[in-house]
Amino acid sequence: MMKNSLRLALILAAFSALGPFTVDMYLSSLPQIMDFFDSNTSMIQASLTASLLGLGLGQLVMGPLSDSYGRRNPLLMAMVIYILSSIGCAFASNIESFILLRFIQGVAASAGLVISRAIARDRYSGVELTKFISLLTLISNVAPLISPNAGTAVTSFSSWIGVFVTLGVFGLLLMGVTAWGLRESLPVQNRVPHNFMTLLKNYKHLVSDRIFMGYALVNGILFAGVFAFVAGTPFIYQNMFGVSPQLFSILFALNGLAIMLGSQFVKRLAGKWEGRRLLRLGLTLSFISTAALLSVVLLEGTLWMIFGSTFLFAVSIGIVGPVSVSLAMEQHGQMAGSASAVIGSFHYALGAVTSPLVGIAGEHSAIPFGIVIFTTSVLAILSHLVLIRKARTEYAT
Fold first, then answer.
1. Longest dimension (CA), the chain
2. Which InterPro entries match (predicted)?
3. pTM exceeds 0.90 for this model
4. What tens digit of pLDDT does each residue of 228-263 get?
């Protein structure tokens, strides 16, 4: 059983990794791409925004499709589109078509994110679902650590075109895994009719479920703090503290390992501790660590104080992430794809709000960074209190 769970987790983690690889792998190539298309910085940044929009919006489409047609067929379709759009990016003739293809590539990659969570819900429930999602989180968090370096490695012997050819090959491998290594997890009798009114009805049902929305918002708001961390630390570490690119990569990787540490903690305690207790622990740790971070930046503390605070915040993400997803999806097995889509879309929608805010005071001030990340912890706790605990209290009475 454990061997089968690990095999499935590795497969689903590979699909989850498609999003980070799609976003991060080409970042070191941005100057090359700008020169190739004789474009400007804003247009090149638009290609990044387009892929993030595709990843966010695509989940809202791919999730319901997988509820209606099963998990494998939408994944196969998405991987074909991903391969074609990746090759299209490599041979785009102008920046406008490149941006459009990046959006399509993001939509296709979103299938891996949303359907992998839905498959987990198909196969597991309760404590086993929490354990499996924590295992999936543990493995899939390797992707953000290696994807930027993988892009740099490719461009060391190729041009930026090689990055997108490599992504196309990755998509081809995942298409093969889908066709020959992934069994359908959603029986025909459990599928929902596919029409626009059913789609709206399902989303209305999910949005009106206060407990589901509470868990989804707790997850999405805290992950918006992660986006703020990713956007802010390159400038804070390197411009304010003079950290070298090599040391920055190490510090960034350690925060990724902190998320994995939190996920492993959940995996160990799931079944011994109730999921809601684990969630409260994670939220408490996020509040303490982000309050410490805000205090450090206001008092102009050292780099290592900032790093220590963000490390503990990353551990809290590793705890809250798998537990909140498991609790949110537990009661929505028949629309697991749509439920997964709502959860995943919050990451990118809320992350798009927090990322620009960390830089509003310029690249030499960490105060907005501290305020934004602390605010995400406070809002996550409020979501838990107002939506989850209040709703459970009302249902009990």
1. 66
2. Efflux_drug-R_Bcr/CmlA, MFS, MFS_dom, MFS_trans_sf, Sugar_transporter_CS
3. no
4. 887 788 778 878 888 886 787 788 788 888 988 998
